[in-house]
């Protein structure tokens, strides 16, 4: 393994998510120089993004600055830059700084953990009408949109128009879709009714679409059945075996067991699919291997890229042992890769990566969740307590853990209010202008199509690129 001019081994880590941050931390005190490059300045705890989107948590609590997390790690530095090239021959990472300048970052060991992005299953034009949720900006955008629709319902005098503003359609009933639908229902049916005078927010329609025959497709049938029942008790319309086929700024057309139906809806949210970061495909092409259907790069049992022992790929963008695209594989692979790098420098062998399955869980709404851990299936309040414990435990930083517990106590248990409901006229104007053409140009641009994306939208076989 090579060394830098300073005599230290240079490790470049691309991505400060669950995978990249854990590699960086595992290298604390190692005799290496770590450069952590991310196009965001924070480590995002994605499992709680839906709470930002529904006004429960402020973004800062789930997105601490990478710089602050690593401040005591003397061998690590953080760069805010967008990685655009991985030159495996020259061993150089090419990244753009915020002012556009190109940074060339030479490495001895490269770790790429750039995560995943939305997949619209080949219908990328839908991104304009149904935004997804992957970043803090996405969640804030959704929150602004949801809150603006309630404001418009208060202003509207025509009952049909008001009903339209109060119709929310969530596409995809994986954990993220279930959690979002549940929180929108709580907002509309429990939190907001007394805040509005003309609009009866209890009349809000929340529709959850799922292409498969059950909600939470990867979960056990008992947990799926419980979740569906709870969602329906919360007033959510759950539509199974139903695909979103078309959308515009005012409506969504769905195809279900009863045929085609167009639903007028002020808000449509995409929670249906993911595909690996484009860096996975780039890395695969440069290494001469084939990315899988979800755009992930296959890696060896030690998380290295085939033919390149000095390059590691992990987390959502890598395919290893059919592990799902959730936090635990990324965290465990991150810790493992840090150990491999240290072992190599010390001339030691590391056994292949072994995944320890800690189970899965999802919240449905107030005091209600489902959990499947170590073969035990738990529903209701006990699952909710487990969910709280696990999520607080995995948040970075004690300040954020305490802040989150305090905010939950206030928002969910004591006042039943939401403390993060700030929108201004201009934001609301942008949000609703899209729903009322002729308007200003939409603010969001659809991402580029995945070359091998599928024809159908939700309902496609669920495995690698499954929605969270
Ligand atoms: C809404 C939502 C809810 C979820 N809920 C859960 C849950 O409840 N439980 C669970 O286990 N999992 C959940 N997940 C999945 C989990 O968050 C991911 O599996 C996990 O974050 C993957 O970690 P990662 O390190 O591979 O990628 P990420 O955590 O996504 O990190 C990737 C990092 O790379 C950076 N990056 C990307 N491209 C570039 C580039 N070109 N240049 C520089 N930096 C770049 C990004 O900014 C990001 O910081 C959820 C995901 C989402 C989106």
TrEMBL record:
Residues 10-334 form the FAD/NAD(P)-binding domain. This is NADH:ubiquinone reductase (non-electrogenic). It comes from Geodermatophilus obscurus. The keyword Secreted does not apply. One of its GO terms (molecular function) is NADH dehydrogenase (quinone) (non-electrogenic) activity. Residues 447-468 are annotated as: Disordered. Its EC number is 1.6.5.9. It catalyses: a quinone + NADH + H(+) = a quinol + NAD(+). The chain crosses the membrane at residues 374-396. It is an enzyme of class 1 (oxidoreductase). Keywords: FAD, Flavoprotein, Membrane, NAD, Oxidoreductase, Transmembrane, Transmembrane helix. Belongs to the NADH dehydrogenase family. It holds the Pfam family Pyr_redox_2. SUPFAM superfamilies: FAD/NAD(P)-binding domain. It comes from the Bacteria. The keyword Flavoprotein applies. InterPro entries: FAD/NAD-bd_sf, FAD/NAD-binding_dom, NDH-2.
